# Entry
Amino acid sequence: MSHSIRSTNPEFDNLNINNVELTTYDNDQAGVIVVQKGPASIAEGSKGSEVNVTLTKQPDVGEVVTVKVSEIVTGDNKNQLSFVDQTLIFTHSNWNSTQTVLVNAIDDSDTENSYRATVQFETSSSNIADSGFSSLNTAESEINIIVEDNDKGAVLVTASHGSTIVNSEKSDSYSLVLSRAPKAPVTVNLLNDGQTLFSCDDKRFNAEDNSVTFTAENWNEAITITLNVNPDYDAQSTSQPVQKPPLQPHLLTQITR
# Structure
């Protein structure tokens, strides 16, 4: 959906407005609706990502539609994901009731780069001869999940709803979580250009210096940071934000292939 604006107020006249993408499903055609509710990036050994599944149309009376959730693995790659409730059963009575699949990253001992895993939703029907659910194009419902290795340290940043946009009337948020349990407290410094303000009710957030501290007890509990427009921002200011680099050696040997 696209928008345009006309106004006698020059501050609003002909403003650029972001488009909104909508996905429309035909309820006369067999299909699977997949909505990713959890983060698009998950770390090995951490909390997984939830995916909601329903059907686009009602199966016939007595028909049973089975949706099998699996990871697509190609070449010499190995499985990176595991699933809770991997097989979903839909009938004439529960076809539009959401069923949830929990996707977890398999915890192994290999040091790996970030990996984009693809999840597919294959359907079959007890009424094979007449049902459209037996001949679906599963590629249309596939989703991607980024798997982060927990054999090396990383901070996973996830924007709410896939993006972070704020204005004077609307706030937005994103979340932070670690990829592995630390041996000592880890402090993440939040840095911006002054146009936005950070806020958070979590005790791990320090409002005085805009930092978040994780420990071995809460490393896998995501913290949500809220962003608001800074009403006192001065675009003409020459001051620059001060970045605090971590006090540790930065060696080429830390780079993994």
Notes: Residues 159 and 174 are 4 Å apart (CA to CA). The chain has a mean pLDDT of 87. The first strand starts at residue 32 and ends at 36.
